[in-house]
Amino acid sequence: MIPIQDMNIMFIMFRKGGRLSRNVKFMYKGRELDIVDRFTYLGIVFTPGGSFSKTFDALSGQALKAVFRLKSCISKYPCISIKHRLDLFDKLIYPVLSYGSEIWGLSNSLQIERIHLRFCKELLGVRLQTQKNFVYGELGRTSLLCKRSINVIRYWLKIVTMDTVKYVKLMYDKLCMHLKENPHFKSWAYNVRQLLQALGFNDVWLSQGVGDINLFLNMFKRRATDNYIQIWQSELRESSRARNYVHVSFFELQPYLCNVNITKYRYALSRLRMSSHMLSIETGRWHKPTATPYNERTCLFCNTLEDEYHFLLECQLYAELREMYIKPYYFKRRNMFKLIELMTSQKAVVNRNLAMYVHKAFELRKTFHMYYE
After folding, report:
1. Residues 6+ apart with CB under 8 A from 312
2. Among residues 167, 157, 194, 166, which one has the least CA distance to residue 179?
3. What's the pTM value of the predicted model, to 2 decimals?
4. Which of 39, 72, 194, 224 has the fewest C-beta atoms lying within 10 Å of its C-beta?
């Protein structure tokens, strides 16, 4: 035990900004307290401005170490499915990333979301620059912000049912009183109110509680997920990169991710679906100093627009591969409906053959371009 008089007592002064005057001193039992710019308590990093950014940095750093350990363990068992890998993330990594999220969970933390997104991209084998809504749609996953909102509401329901003598309840009542006087002042209570109103639960906020908590939480989770999917669909419709993906996507774990067991083939199909490839339709975007006009992103072999449709069903460079791996039904009298049917098939044999075609066609295209570019 360390005697209290020998302990180094630290002090943090919360303020909105600016430098602390050198003349400011705080004393305790005749001793001057050390004023620090951050303090960690129960894993949460407090700073003078009240920002949680340092907490996000700390949690993402801890989660990154956990991800490395998880990947090291998974590498010993390559047959683990994508679904089970995601379950492991949710059970082992997400608790680290969401620690204390009942308080800060409605903050949009890029550091924390980046850990989740990178893990998902590595599962799919796509480039880090791949559009995030493609990745979430392919795996049927919402952002961590959406998941954390459920933690916040669960904690809010716990607070409103607490005894009025509890410190947490007293502080919450103070926040609510302040919110009535200053409706636009941002606080934890303000964020909870905004979230409930955005999802159509304003009556729940006004009544400050619900009857059956478990029933409401299930309803809230469903509505929060549905709202996220609606935003996801809207973003796809507005994205110029999603010309193909918007036709072949539906928000759930895609069947081919379970049906295609050979990693390199599954990666190839993921890259084609999510525009994480080297076809001209995509590489034309990267051309410097200005992007290549859409209609000029042509196939080197056919001199026509090289998009996913052309790559799968038209280009004669891959005619032999197409005969081997794709049924004539799809490329004889081809049309967009048949492309969608091919890329959204839930049949394992169709998924596997398509994935093999895409992988081998990518390799052939790479060889062809090496000689003729």
Report:
1. 272, 322, 326, 331, 339, 342, 343, 357, 358
2. 194
3. 0.87
4. 72
* CB of 231 closer than 8 Å to CB of 136: no
* Sequence-ordered alpha helix ranges (H) in the chain: 53-74, 82-88, 94-97, 101-104, 110-124, 132-139, 144-160, 167-181, 188-198, 202-207, 213-238, 245-248, 255-259, 263-273, 280-283, 308-309, 319-325, 328-331, 336-343, 348-372
User: Cβ(326)–Cβ(354) under 8 Å?
Assistant: yes
Where along the chain do its domains lie?
4-46, 53-146, 149-235, 255-372
Phi-psi group of 17: left, alpha or beta (phi > 0 → left; psi -120 to 50 → alpha; rest → beta): left
CA-CA distance, 41 to 200, in Å (whole number)?
36
Is 294 within 8 Å of 284 (Cβ atoms)? yes
Output DSSP code: residue 242.
G
Please say whether the dihedral angle defined by the alpha carbons of residues 48, 53, 56 and 62, taken in this order, is positive or negative: negative
One-letter identity of residue 176: C
Q: Which helix (H) or strand (E) is 35 found in, with range?
A: strand 34-35
* Confidence check: pLDDT of 220 > 70: yes
In whole angstroms, what is the distance from residue 9 CA to residue 28 CA?
Answer: 9
